[in-house]
Amino acid sequence: MPLALSEATPRSELTTRNGLALRVRTAGPGDEDALKEFFGHVSAEDLRFRFLSGLDHVREAQLAPLTHADHKQSESYLVFDGETLVASAVLAADEAMDTAEVAIAIRSDYKGRGIGWTLLDYVARCARLKGIRTLQSIESYDNHAAIELEREMGFVARASPGDASLVIVEAQLAPV
What we know:
This protein is an alpha+beta fold. Helix content is 27%, strand content 30%. It has an eight-stranded mixed beta sheet, with helices on both faces. A hairpin with a 5-residue loop joins strand 4 (84-93) and strand 5 (99-106). The longest helix is centred in the C-terminal third of the chain and has 15 residues, at 115-129. Mean pLDDT is 87; it is low at 1-8.
C-alpha cells in the first residue's frame, strides 16, 4: 500500500516543462520490487552517476535506504507516469537540518522530457519546507548534463575536497 506524502511535502501532482503529467509519492517498505525493476531501466552510466560507483545492477543494500527513510532527515520520492515508475529521488539532511544532499535517477527511456528539472525543483521545495538552507548534489565531473541542469537552476559548482573526480553543486535555499 503506498504511503501518504509527509506534511513537509508539497503537491503530489507535477507537470514538466514539456507537459508530461507525473505523480510523486514517498517510498516505503514494499516498494523494493518496483525500485529493482526501475533501476533495471536506468543506463549503466546513469547508475554510475547516481551511486558514484561502477555497478551493473542495484543491490538489496542500496535499496534499503530508498524504502526505509526516516521522513525527517531523509526522504525517498518515487515519480510515476501512470503506473510506470520513471524517477527516484532521495533527500538526506544533516543532523542540524541545515544542509541536505539530493540524488536523482531517471529511466533511460524517459530522459529528455523535463523530469530532472521538475523533480529537482520539487525536492528543493520539500527541502525548504523542512527548513534546509543548503541543497547539495555530489556529481561526477563526467555528468555534464546534471551539472548544467543544476547550474541553470542557480546551483554553484565547486571541487569536492579529497576527490578530484567529483564536484559539489549546491544552492542556497530561501526560507519559507
